[in-house]
Amino acid sequence: MEKYSGFNLLKHALTGHRRWPRSWRSPEPKPRYDVVIIGGGGHGLATAYYLAKEQGITNVAVLEKGWLGGGNTGRNTAVSRSNYFYPESTRFFEHSLKRFETMGRDLNYNIMFSQVGLLNLAFSRHELEIFRRWATAIQVQGVDCQVMSRDEIAAAVPLLNMSPHARYRVYGGFMQRRGGISRHDAVAWAYARAADNLGVDIIQNCEVTGLEVGDGRIRGVKTSRGAIRTDKVGMAVAGHSTAVAAMAGIKLPIVSQCLQAMVSEPVKPCFDHVVMSPMVHCYVSQSDRGELVIGGGADTHPSYGQRGNLPTTEAVLNAVVEMYPTFSRLKLMRQWGGIVDIAPDSSPIVSKTPVTGFYISTGWGTGGYKAIPAGGETLAHTIAHDRPHPLVEPFSLDRFAQGRLVDEGAAAGVAH
Amino acid sequence: MKRTAQRLPHARVDPGKTLRFRFDGRTYEGVAGDSLASALLANGVGVVGRSFKLHRPRGVFGCGKEEANALVQLESGGYSEPNARATLVPLYEGLEARGQNAWPNVRSDVFGALGVFKRLLPASFYYKTFMWPNWQRWEGLVRRLAGLGIAPTSADPQKYLKQNVHADVVVVGAGRSGLEAALATSRDPACRVLLIDEQEEPGGGLLASPAAADRSWLEEALREVAARDNITLLCRTTVNGYYDNNVLAALERLSNHHGPAAGGAVRERFWRIFAGRVVLATGAIERPLVFPNNDRPGIMLASAVREYCHRYGLTLGERIVFYTNNDSAWRTALELVDAGVPVVAIIDLRPAVESELRQRAREAGIALHLGTVVTDTRGRSGLRRLVLHRLAGPGDALEAPAGTLDCDVLAMSGGWTPTVHLYSQSGGLLAYRDSDACFVPERAHQAVTAVGRANGEFAAPLNLQPQWLTPGVSAEHQWVDFQYDVTASDIQLAARENFVSVEHVKRYTTNGMSVDQGKTSNVNGLGILALATGRPIPEVGTTRFRPPYHPTSLGAYAGIELGALYTPFQQLPAHAAHVAAGALFEDYGAWQRPACYPRPGEEEEAAMAREARAVRSAVGLLDYSPLGKLEVRGPDAREFLNRMYLNNIRTLEVGAARYGLMLNEAGIVIDDGVVVCLARDHFLLHTTSGGATTIHQHLEEWLQCEWTDLEVIVGNATTQWATLMLSGPKARAVLAQLDGDIDVSREAFGHMQYREGRLLGQPCRILRASFTGEVSFEISVPANCGLSLWEALMQAGEPHGIVPFGIETLMLLRTEKGYPHVGADTDGNTMPQDLGWGGAVANKPDDFVGRRSLSQPVGSDPGRFQFTGLELLEADARTVSGAHILTADGESTAGYVTSAFHSPNLNRTVALGIVADARDRQGEEVTVFYAGQRQRARLIKPGVYDPAGEALNG
């Protein structure tokens, strides 16, 4: 793998960049792998990378139905944060955030992680009380979190609607300074390049059509490019989790819904943080290209359509203009959708399953991107050792049978 | 670029009416009918913009939505709009525009020097560097150089409307095909046709036609459209999105053509269109050719040169050269010569062209260069010269230099791309047509058809010979996406690095990600990728088209639902009285309620203390109208409620009330309230104020989805009744003074009893329940009587020292009493046993919602957070709702303070919380943590004021 650096960029400039090597191979599937990962998004690629890097398992295939990074990895708003409520969540996402902080150099790929700070806004007295509880929860975990007053918020987000005529008055909020945004495609590509370099076969345009299960064990995978034998399968397919798990006879408590994202036309820097709010429901940041990157609530009905429909687009942009009135004359450039996999408690599932050798990573809901490094690392560990990584013990599939939910939504009253 | 002194005849502008405008600080004149782009071209303004990445000088390149270069900052202040396409801005008197992404201006941009470093800045160079020490060190610089226009910083003075419309047939595009489709479908008078066109006037491509026959056809067609009652024509309206169920979104520009003179007038209207059938007559967009330095000002689409000539009367140059690979540009060139435009040469990369065209061109005095390609262009701020080579064969290497050619305008045509965006958004499949090198609609997914050029039906054969990039010369300066500075070499680099999926190439090179969303760059990019990867184009595929087709104001999506209209809010029936009493209003769910009633100069906490003391010592009045009031009725109502509440409802007598807890399927407490039995088969549920709607839905879900056999009707009567809470030791005395037929004496009307009757001549419902700990009457009268009841009670209470009190004061009072408030003192894990209701669960003989889940292992886990009182050990110590209780080691959370107030009646802090195993740990000391501070507290029984409850029966 040729190192990426300013020096090498200069060197290749001399030859007109005609000698850059390919970022990854395009191998044909082998008949047998030690581990097969279904899903070539961020989670699948990171899992393969950590299997090779930390678990010493390199005979690994990542099977991707389309193009790598083409699912939610390439469709989200690229926010990373660890400001969760429950300790088990905060521990996991803090681990992931730390991985983001060093990912550029770890993987020798500039993922453009920019810690612009993530601000949450409260719009009522009750919401502010919940925010205090939430912010304190983060602080107790030793994670950075700063409660901010209305005035401090006005200074940090000059374009925010602080008018007394606003329908909802900003009461206060809290900021996680280390939260930030990055380039989502780059994360997928960085893991793909690094995993490929360690010997992982990334096989694109290879759809899994069936799972072979015998005597309660995984035996292999049927694909559009032939059968592959393996003893271990890791599933990281986000919105299609229920469909793939059903191939192993497993019914998952997952609902798939479309979550939209959208960007405005690019403008010069005008928005310095990621600002989110549960009540006037939208979140906004500005990309390095200058686009305002906008998200909000999921479409209201279950769907596999990766587009999203008009009412939700309108509701999200209505919230944006209500909160930032001067954005009114900016123009929406592109809107799209991804299919998110939502568990009943809105927390992830990284777990063994009733089928031996079949491991799942799902339930990432609207927040899978920020979990990519830790999700990959813990799934790799779970696969390699056939027991959950300590960080994901609370996120096992059997928590639903035991009632031991990790209900972030109910605790903090906030989508995440 | 030549200044046009006099417009050509037959143009669709009015040369007699001049309009003054300013661009980059200089004043110019245009004429009525001009676009900003045509007016700039008329004034010979060559450089109108700078590219995104390299800040290359750019001139007008197209004439419509496809424009990639002429993006301007339009107007200033509240009217400021970044990235306005000069081609789409109709000129008006006093228009002000500035070039973007340049300093000091687009003519001489110091960042233009970046072009020198192009070699160092290939596609995605940023992923390969800027890692040391970290990206953020570099980011500021990169961010400032990126972006285009400047976001406005003043509020938008204009408004946006929304409108829904249903139509049997929606025709998108009022050019020839669209008009034909509209006229054909509207022959059935019952068929409502909506004809939509995005230009300033209908006509589409016909507007740029010099042919008299075309013009008269258009006039006739428009007359016919106007005569038909069942056709609605919307102009200045762009259909932007095609969604599921044949729903379209469109944006109508109502007053943009007036500029700031429109004042506060509605700017745009957002249409939601519900279509039976859709006909897409959206035309086609011409493609540029890809050759070295093809981005120089003066190099334009042939179709744009044609439109500027015939529609705006501009000749643009003194030596105009055409460069093409198909026949359409030849016809354009001949047309222009007929109009008196100096076309000096046609360069065609095809070795052979139909003899008739050649013949006519020669007769028109046009020099012909067949089998020839442009291998470079020269000129500083505008085009001066072309460098030509002869091609060895189709797509082959170059054969020999073919000299140079002086010119000031190059009109290029690389073929046509049908505008299939909406078709693709609708889910329709596209197919690649080799002969015309374009994607055309193949299979519809919804009720939609494409007609005319949008369907690849060109008036005359193109005889096109694709050339995706110029062979034999470096690809490094062959622009594909003009705005984002993507060149052919970028796409080749992507392919070399194994980014071979078309989506990868788009993301790696940013080809097609600029504000025109690839309208002119997509297909050329695909062609270059196909060549680089040795695959045919159909195998490469296309990227998915996304809404909006053309960028759309965020304000239009928001509409008028801003400020007070953003979400509906509810005011209390006695709102006017609260205003008069100086209430501090806050949002509680949808309701705007008095938090308390501070007197002038009085702090909020002092006001609450005053109100709370009055309730404890005399009497207070609270507007309690948001209290949920669900009526449940029917033969199975009792059975239904017995299943919904963990409490026993079977034994509830008529006229009696009972406190109840409601759980969800997971056994979590979601609501508490009082169930009143109005009749054997008729119940009134008082839910928490914020919960009326969600609990109503919860009940309906069980009735409609699970227990369809139960005969029960649920109605939400919350807003039909005004409810006032009269509370305090003098409450009975106050109420007794009012004219009514209910005996409110202690003997006749006990706690948790309910009475109906008349009060002040109106029907009324009175419940004796208490959330303050004092004797309380919750008096409901029809909502429109709320204000008069409020006034009557305040008047009757005056001798007793009555005060109005707010919801925060109520929270203080119930915290003193230790009454839990579901939602505040519970969280998403609270089960009944955590509130001390474990016994009730065990004693209830019947099943109820959530019961099963209570027996899961989690229900008996150690460390469950349980409801408790908290006593701060230090005198005068304060805490807040949101503070945490720490574990013994101080390392993690073992609960939260959920309610905390300073009690004026006890003169110390009263607090409630949920704390790990609190029910077994009463009396233990714990640590409270908030904002870095630690305090000691003791777990105590909730309710420190009047623990014996004597006041209730006073």
UniProtKB/TrEMBL annotation, chain A:
Its EC number is 1.5.3.24. Its main location: cytoplasm. One of its GO terms (biological process) is tetrahydrofolate metabolic process. Belongs to the SoxB family. Residues 35-79 form the Rhodanese domain. It catalyses: sarcosine + (6S)-5,6,7,8-tetrahydrofolate + O2 = (6R)-5,10-methylene-5,6,7,8-tetrahydrofolate + glycine + H2O2; sarcosine + O2 + H2O = formaldehyde + glycine + H2O2. One of its GO terms (cellular component) is cytoplasm. It holds the Pfam family DAO. It comes from Parahaliea mediterranea. This is Sarcosine oxidase subunit beta. GO terms for molecular function: nucleotide binding; sarcosine oxidase activity. It is an enzyme of class 1 (oxidoreductase). The keyword Hydrolase does not apply. Keywords: Cytoplasm, FAD, Flavoprotein, FMN, Nucleotide-binding, Oxidoreductase. SUPFAM superfamilies: FAD-linked reductases, C-terminal domain, FAD/NAD(P)-binding domain. It is found in: Cytoplasm. Its cofactor is FMN; FAD.
Automatic annotation (TrEMBL), chain B:
One of its GO terms (molecular function) is transaminase activity. Residues 168-428 form the FAD/NAD(P)-binding domain. Residues 867-946 form the Aminomethyltransferase C-terminal domain. Residues 575-842 form the GCVT N-terminal domain. Residues 476-559 form the SoxA A3 domain. Pfam families: Fer2_4, GCV_T, GCV_T_C, Pyr_redox_2, SO_alpha_A3. Keywords: Aminotransferase, Oxidoreductase, Transferase. Gene3D superfamilies: 2Fe-2S iron-sulphur cluster binding domain, sarcosine oxidase, alpha subunit, N-terminal domain (3.10.20.440), FAD/NAD(P)-binding domain (3.50.50.60), Probable tRNA modification gtpase trme, domain 1 (3.30.1360.120). The keyword Ribosomal protein does not apply. SUPFAM superfamilies: Aminomethyltransferase beta-barrel domain, FAD/NAD(P)-binding domain, Folate-binding domain. Coiled coil: none annotated. Belongs to the GcvT family. This is (2Fe-2S)-binding protein. It comes from Parahaliea mediterranea.
